[in-house]
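Hi support team,

I've been running sequence recovery on a batch of backbones for a student project. Most finish fine, but this one hangs at about 90% for roughly twenty minutes before it completes. I'm not sure whether the input is malformed or the queue is just slow. I've pasted the structure tokens below so you can try to reproduce it. Let me know if you need the job ID as well.

Thanks,
M.K.
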């Protein structure tokens, strides 16, 4: 499997899944974007302070990943898509992509309701079919992190009906992303750092 193209320390610290040779396409055809993704993953830590902080519109964890990529030239992007049949145009609206660079679409789903995965995968499928993207990437959390959240007294803020790996993989395997090559990373407890301890 082409996930072996990823550095070993990424594979050791994240749960990784791919479909339709996404890693090979990224590494060979989009080396700059590949390097950006490897870089954001290498530099990410799951800080206790970010987990216990009260939630807002977007979690500190999602913001950290977004902002890292924005500093590397990735952008939030909406597409104006339509299908033309004879002389009639039919709007085919898509949701904006969290981070886009050179035909690579990346979504961060840390703690949304799990139907957000359906939205993301439908976006990837449609944009791939229209030739707008070549690979879709999702960064989410490992399902096993629930044990960590429970131990920190934050278990009620995260639940079985929110975005985590066991909600995502069956959707992709069921064809939710169509023919789009997809690469998925699950944030694991091996990335956890208690940054609240007083030295």
């Amino acid at each position: 499997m082409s996930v072996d193209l990823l550095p070993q320390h990424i594979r050791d610290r994240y749960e990784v899944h791919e479909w339709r040779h996404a890693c090979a396409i990224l590494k060979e055809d989009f080396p700059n974007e590949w390097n950006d993704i490897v870089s954001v993953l290498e530099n990410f830590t799951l800080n206790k302070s970010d987990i216990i902080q009260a939630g807002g519109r977007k979690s500190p964890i999602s913001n950290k990943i977004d902002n890292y990529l924005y500093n590397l030239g990735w952008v939030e992007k909406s597409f104006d898509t339509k299908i033309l049949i004879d002389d009639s145009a039919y709007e085919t609206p898509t949701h904006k992509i969290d981070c886009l660079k050179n035909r690579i679409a990346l979504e961060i789903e840390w703690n949304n309701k799990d139907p957000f995965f359906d939205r993301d995968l439908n976006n990837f499928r449609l944009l791939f079919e229209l030739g707008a993207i070549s690979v879709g990437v999702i960064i989410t959390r490992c399902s096993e992190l629930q044990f960590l959240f429970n131990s920190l007294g934050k278990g009620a803020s995260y639940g079985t009906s929110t975005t985590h790996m066991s909600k995502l993989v069956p959707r992709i395997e069921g064809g939710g992303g169509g023919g789009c090559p997809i690469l998925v990373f699950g944030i694991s407890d091996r990335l956890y750092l208690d940054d609240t301890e007083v030295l």
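--
Follow-up from support: It reproduced on our side and the slowdown came from queue contention, not your input. The chain has a mean pLDDT of 93. No action needed from you.
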